[in-house]
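ingest -> fold -> write
write: protein_1
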Amino acid sequence: MTGSYRIIVNGKQVDISCPPGRTLLDIIREDLGLTGAKRGCGIGACGACTVLIDGKPRRSCRIKIGEIAHDSPHITTIEGLEQDGKLHPIQQAFIDCGAIQCGFCTPGMVLAAKALLDSNPDPTREEIRTALSANLCRCTGYQQIFQAVEKAARLLK
């Protein structure tokens, strides 16, 4: 059974026809060509597929389009953060602090950091650690990531 769904991705309205059980990750990557969100574990445990839905970090591999599209949700992917060819301060801070190694986890980490800094512009290290705890990284050891979020908080003030 195919349905018609309307979502807003990175500020642009998108109309999709697909089965209601199709994942948001598949739609974002395959239909929209936005490949920043990654398929990691496929069960919502690693955070590589994180996007923001109405400003909240969500695992797009676990979300079925039929569960969310009735509200025309605003979805932000990593590609939606840059403005006029300029990186978002969080993205720049990740680069500046060496928080990008292989890059697989980076989009999810950046979006989780954005959600945190949008709700708490001056987080403690422990609050950063908690906010990013659902996003796994195998390369950095997390210290550079925490430093990047702290730097981004300063840049955004």
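write: protein_2
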Amino acid sequence: MKYAYFPGCSLTSTATEYNMSTRAVSKSLDIELVEIPDWICCGATPAHSTSHLLSIALPVKSLVQAKEMDLEVVTCCAACFSRLKVANNVMKSNEEDRDKVNQIVNADYEGEIKVRHLLDVLVNKYDLDGLKSKVKTELTDLKVASYYGCLLTRPPDIMDFDDPEEPKSMDNLMAAIGAQPLEWPYKTECCGASLAISRPDIVMKLTFDILKMAKDAGAECIAVACPLCQSNLDLYQGDIERKYDTEFNLPVFYFTQLVGLSLGIEPERLGIEKNTVDPWTLLETRRLV
């Protein structure tokens, strides 16, 4: 199993632990990730709030590189996944935009390279039964709130990945490695994303509600698939606790970190020491490290 890997800006900077755990898990499962040469930023929020053509041309530039590799693309950041999928949709369905973008990137691209999220690959391509056979340390009854965020499954006609309101892929993955995925109502609510910079007050309220719902559901930790979600829930959790005079103490893991632990991969290869909210007490209590 071989894919053209688009890490994106976050995984090579503020979310290096996501990149580390993705590569470690993929290697353990014999999934070959070949990094797209000369990939560039997908544009994320700034591009599509500034220029429609820029927001399409940026991801297409990297997709053209993947086309030359003749491989499907896999990415891990929910924002990157969204922008790559949206770009493909535009290039397939809008002839006028397609011509303009192809002129900008000096290529002939029609949205033909399939883009997958790593979560999709593990659940729907690798096969959960095959993954179970590789598990060395089950995360027995670890109560996990799977948090998908607002971008991973929406808009459903473009993302074409899981149910937009009641997604199950991460829950099924957690169950496959022995954890106990919880039913809770905020699994697709927005955390505020990059508003943490311009409107931290909004992000504080949104993330407080998410953390409270997870805690009330009995979660011992949260699993995420997006660097912005992880940052808001993990990095700012202490500030949120002080603002609302409460205590959550909920470690926030990338789903790849939890899968990696179940596969017997050393915590340092998964970047777990980079997590802000103390993960060690929980992991040591459960004898996972």
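write: annotation protein_2
The chain has two domains: 2-117, 134-285.
Residues 52-69 form the longest helix (18 residues).
pipeline exit 0
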